[in-house]
Amino acid sequence: MRKLIFTLLSSGFISLAIAQTPMSPNVLGEPFQGQHFKAKADNDVEGDPLVFGDWKKGEVTLKNGEHYPIQKMNLDGQRNRFLYQINDSIYEFQDNIREIKIYNGDDANSIIVFRNNVDPESDNFVALLDTGKITIFETYDKKPEGENYSNGIVNNTRKYVLHTTQYALINKVANPIKFNSSTLEDLTSDKKKEVEAFVKENKLKVKKEPDFLKAINYYNSIGS
What we know:
Residues 1-19 form the signal peptide. Keywords: Signal. The chain is mainly beta. The protein folds into 2 domains: 35-177, no CATH class; 179-223. The chain has 3 helices and 14 strands. Helix 2 (192-201) packs across helix 3 (209-222). The protein is globular and about 55 Å long. The termini are far apart.
């Protein structure tokens, strides 16, 4: 049986009860069979490491090209591992995943594509925001922060906090970026006039992620 490992929280914040439970082949097929884990969160940390508040529908593409629709998926932002849920049981995907698509809402066009072969510094799954001469991707990191403290007046709670970082990948070098006009100008300097005209014509506010990405997508479409 192929190995699937799941944990909702890191070993320091979780107690595990493991039960070997093979899934029926008519549920998702052999590529998704494996160990079944039950997890109980540690009450010392508020929240959980899952990136999405609700489990999302999506699609998984294996390295051999096979596609599988999944009804409930989520990303463990602490370990950068994708999970899926069936009948209240949670499993972790194997390392044979090439791409994961998350349907973010009811809009069929609102899809987040994750791949683990984009960031030159790691094999973590990252969200692809745009691809081309300039590839923009986003990383997720969700870990416990703060400390549990109370002096009778002030109460602090250790909790999971999500951080996202955006990167521009050019010539296999990734640099963190901010969505603003200065970044856009630096990234598209060889097509400065064309991009500026596009931004002006479409009244884009490049401090907003959607508009910044529209400008990058336009730049990628007109080539070098």
